[in-house]
Predict the structure of Quinol monooxygenase YgiN.
Amino acid sequence: MSQIAVISINTAKPGQEQKMEAAMRALIAPSQADPGYLQYDLHRDLDDPRTFVFYERWESRELLHQHFKAPHVVAWIAQAGDLVESSTLRILESLG
């Protein structure tokens, strides 16, 4: 099975940028310990500092879905409603 790439684009509600950045940074270390982790990088948009982008790579879709159920991700989802204005998630199959 092919590796999976994930692009997650999240725009903070006005005034919530610092809280959202802190919450997203807190995801990095535990996510790097999740089974199937290959890459988990957080970025900020240079033209829109309220927008944060995760670029991730996982060994398989099954292991990605296990990551989605991990306690640190579940906790993020629970608080995201207070922080996130808009969100886009793309799950991509690596073609080469």
About this structure: The longest strand covers residues 84-93. The two ends are 12 Å apart (CA to CA). The longest helix spans residues 17-32. The mean pLDDT is 95.
